[in-house]
Amino acid sequence: MTKPMRTNHPLVKIMNSALIDLPSPSNISYLWNMGSLLGMCLMIQILTGLFLALHFSANTDISFFTVTHITHDVSLGWLIRSIHSNGASLFFICLYLHIAKGIYYNSFTLQLTWMSGITILLLVMMATFLGYVLPWGQMSFWAATVITNLLSTIPYIGNMLVQWVWGGFAVDNATLTRFFTFHFLIPFIVVFMVLIHFLFLHQTGSNNPLGINSSTDKIPFHPFFSSKDFYGIIPTLTTLFLVSWLYPSLLIDPENFIPANPLVTPIHIQPEWYFLFAYAILRSIPNKLGGLVALLSAILIFYLFPLISTKVLKVNSFSFPSKLLFWNFTSVFILLTWIGARPVEPPYIMVGQILTALYFILILILPLMKKV
C-alpha cells in the first residue's frame, strides 16, 4: 500500500509532523492554546503592519500627518491601524499568559524551548517600543527620549551609544528612520525564532498539567487539538475585531494625538500598559544606572529559571506553597503595572520600591521551591 502524500512528500511531511500527526499529551488543556493564539497575533501584526507601511513616511516633518492621513483618508485605514494597535495589546496578553502557564506548570525545565521563548519576548518588546515611537506624537517622542537616554548611564561608552541610536545629537529624523527600519525587520526575525522555538518543542515534546512523562499517552494534534485551537481563535479574533471597530482609540494615550514638540514636556510620561511593570521597576531605583540594570534584569532573569530549578517536583499544582508564591508573584506583577501609571510622588514611590523588591525575591524563589 502506498503511503499517503502527507507522510511521503518532503515538504508536506514537515507540515504534517508539525500540525497533523504531532504526538501531543492527551491531557493538555485550553491553557496550551496560547501558542496558536500568539501565532495568530504575529500574523495579524505583520499583515496590518505591511498595509500601514504602504502609507507611512518615516520623516519627523510629516510622520504624524501620515498617520492622520491613514486614519481619515485611506479606505478602512482607521480599522487597520486600530487592529494593529489593539493587536499589540492582545499579543502581550497572550504572551504574558503563555509565560505564566510555563512558570505554573514548570515548562522552563525544557531549557532550550524556554530560552528561545524568552528571546522571542525580548524581540517583541523591542519591536513594540520602536513601533510606539513611529506616530511621532508627544508621548512617542518623549518616551523615545527618556528610554534612549538611559544608555548614557553605561560607563565609558554610554554617550557614544546614545548618539549612535539617535543618529545625531538629539532624537530627530535619523532616529525615526532607524526605528522604522528595525520595527519593520524585527517581526521577520521573530518568525525565524518561532520556527526555532517549534523545533526545540518538537524535540522534547509538550509539557502537560500533571508534569509526568506522557510518552505512553499521546494522541495526534489533528483533529483533537486543532479543533481546540479553533475554538480559542474564533472568540479571540471576534473580540479583537469588535474592540478595534467600536473602540479604535481605547488604549492610545491622549497625549499621542498631539504632534511631537521638543519644547513641551508632558505632565506624566508613561509607556503602553504592557511596559508599565518594567517602567515602575525602572523609576523605583533612585540611581539611573541602577534603574537600567533593574529594568533589564526584570526580563533577563527569566533565562535563569532552567539553570536554578530542579526536577524534584514537576508542577506547582501539587504544592500549596508553590501555588501561593505563584499567585503572589502574579499579584505583584499586576500591582507594578498599576503603579507604573501613577504619578512619581508619595506614596506611590515607596509602594513601587517595595513591589520591585518583592518582584525579584519571588521570581528567584519560584524555581527553587521544587527543592522544598
From TrEMBL:
Residues 1-210 form the Cytochrome b/b6 N-terminal region profile domain. InterPro entries: Cyt_b/b6_C (IPR005798), Cyt_b/b6_C_sf (IPR036150), Cyt_b/b6_N (IPR005797), Cytb/b6-like_sf (IPR027387), Cytochrome_b (IPR030689), Cytochrome_b_C_euk/bac (IPR048260), Cytochrome_b_N_euk/bac (IPR048259), Di-haem_cyt_TM (IPR016174). GO terms for cellular component: mitochondrial inner membrane; respiratory chain complex III. Its cofactor is heme b; heme. Gene3D superfamilies: Cytochrome Bc1 Complex, Chain C. Heme b b562 binds at residues 84, 183. One of its GO terms (biological process) is mitochondrial electron transport, ubiquinol to cytochrome c. GO terms for molecular function: metal ion binding; oxidoreductase activity; quinol-cytochrome-c reductase activity. Its main location: mitochondrion. SUPFAM superfamilies: a domain/subunit of cytochrome bc1 complex (Ubiquinol-cytochrome c reductase) (SSF81648), Transmembrane di-heme cytochromes (SSF81342). Heme b b566 binds at residues 98, 197. Residues 211-372 form the Cytochrome b/b6 C-terminal region profile domain. The chain crosses the membrane at residues 37-58, 78-100, 112-133, 139-158, 179-200, 230-251, 288-308, 320-341, 347-369. It is a multi-pass membrane protein. It holds the Pfam family Cytochrom_B_C. A ubiquinone binds at residue 202. Binds 2 heme groups non-covalently. Component of the ubiquinol-cytochrome c reductase complex (complex III or cytochrome b-c1 complex) that is part of the mitochondrial respiratory chain. The b-c1 complex mediates electron transfer from ubiquinol to cytochrome c. Contributes to the generation of a proton gradient across the mitochondrial membrane that is then used for ATP synthesis. The main subunits of complex b-c1 are: cytochrome b, cytochrome c1 and the Rieske protein. Belongs to the cytochrome b family. This is Cytochrome b. It comes from Narceus annularis. The lineage of its organism: Eukaryota, Metazoa, Ecdysozoa, Arthropoda, Myriapoda.
